[in-house]
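Dear Dr. V.,

Thank you for agreeing to look over these. As mentioned in my earlier message, I'm a first-year student in the group and I'm still getting used to reading structure tokens, so any feedback on how I've presented them would be very welcome. I ran two proteins. I've put each sequence directly above its structure. The first is here:
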Amino acid sequence: MSSTTSPSDRWRLDWPTSGGGRVASAKLKSGPEDFQVDEDLGLEGFFGNSDLTSIPGDGEHLCLRLEKRGDNTEYVARELATLSGCRSFDIGFCGLKDRHAVTRQWFSLYRPGLAAEDAAFIDKISGRWPVLSACRYSRKLRRGDHRGNRFIITLRDIAGDKASVEAALDHLKEQGAPNYFGPQRFGIAGANLDRAAAMGPDAMDQRGRSGGRGRKGKNRAGREGSKNVLYFSAARSWLFNEVLALRVEQGSWLTPINGEPGLAGNELEVTGPLWGDGGTSAGGVQAELEQGVVDQAPALVRLFSTTRMKPERRPLAVRPAELAWEWQADGNLTLAFFLAPGQYATTILGDIFELEDMSLGQHNN
């Protein structure tokens, strides 16, 4: 772990790969069509209809599957609230999708008693974003409601041995990749981690939510709350990445070690800590390893002593489902795969490729 001397070198943001090094370089997100994300909702009783003149289902929430290019998920949610005349809180979605991409995802809008106006409202929305499907549903969509996301990603200007890339992809298909949180979570040069380390004891309440007392406190929480939660989450994610990095370096990221917590059904899955009050739920050798890593970042660890957030576990490996790839005539590479919520496409690709994100520096909503 790097020393804590200045923001530029305080936080490691590039972690070891499973193969000891990347086999090629490539350009990512040269255009929105190069990064396509299709949300798979998979909710019981949820039936979308592409015939937008006949909206199926019942309930107070109108659900729309939108296609967007270059727009932030939260920006779209705010705009939908404005267009619908409801509060931003009344808009639901399952997860934040990449901005510099073509993404297809569901939003729910709280519109009780307005089913007769759905067709006209959808026509208004279609002037901003293509509406692919719609339905009525009994409740608001929540984070993590979806089954996962399907990706179609094209990498351009690949520099490296094609046979080595093929071998690395075969290896990825068989064993997966280290399940790191992506660097975007930590902000530019780790700025979110700097802010987490500087947070005062009252920034988060005992349940890991943003703090604040009284009307003035509520107003402050309204402005700063989501940022404080973001910084808190960044600290938790970085500590996980540091533990995973050590397991990768030791060659134990795919193999349970002494003290691995048992999961449902007495099965063992190789996991790392999402830190909470009370430390790690691991025992034995694994607890010593995790505690030793985390103790090197006391400024982050102290955040958790002020909350009652329960320690959790996260798998150390991510295995993309339905992984397939095709080389294009121009030498570019298109990959398709499916990931569960909380898994990152850039993390998987970054285990093989040194990626140059061409979207950095672009400014969109």
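The second protein is here, in the same arrangement:
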Amino acid sequence: MEIGKTLYVANRKEWRDWLKKNHDKEKEIWLIYYKKISKKPRIPYDDAVEEALCFGWIDSILKSIDEEKYAQRFTPRRLKSNLSELNRKRIVNLIANKKMTSHGLKAVEKTFKC
């Protein structure tokens, strides 16, 4: 699979802002992560996944770009797809902390009976 449209964000807020504007318009985005050796700011992986879940998106394929960076594919979650145990725990926590959006809740309502 080829890397499609990419996005670099330095922090959780920038990623959430992008998701807020684009979660219902885009079919995928490849989030750029700089490796620690680059010393460039980067969103922590767990933060990226949690924010994606808030909008009904999930992470998947990881691809190396070069020595400094790699990309991870994020897409809207299919309604009938399974959730990993870790993502189930993340979602329970996100719901408890009122971080989930209505779109994110809809994406998991059958699993969690929200």
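From my reading of the second output: The mean pLDDT is 92. The CA atoms of residues 12 and 47 lie 6 Å apart. Does that match how you would interpret it?

Kind regards,
E.
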